[in-house]
Amino acid sequence: DQKASYTAVEHLIKKGKKRIAHFRGPLLPQNSIDRFLGYRKALEDHGIEYNKDLVFICDEISDREGYDHMQTILDKKLDVDAVFEFDNNGNQIH
Question: Which of 6, 10, 17, 74 fits 38 for a cystine, CB–CB 3.0-4.6 Å?
């Protein structure tokens, strides 16, 4: 999970994205932690400062949570140029 996340975020960075939001799973289980660590490591390795305001926890891993978090990004006018997330089947979405 960590390597796959790193690779996906690195792909976004190579496409010129620098303000990448992350819709992560719950604080536990380990795969949620690993995905977050891959996200954060890719940012770090490419000189992009980590911003905790761009990380959104999805406790239920539901479409509704994703929608609500995206609405928060829009409502707060957060400067985001990509979103990195996993769906509830473990598939990467960006």
Answer: 6
Residue 22 forms beta bridges with which residues?
55, 84
On whether the pTM is more than 0.85, the answer is: yes
- Range 19-37 average pLDDT: 93
- Beta strand 55-57 with 20-24 is parallel
Contact 58, 66 (CB under 8 A): yes
Q: Please report where in the chains the tokens 């940012």 appear, as a residue.
A: 43
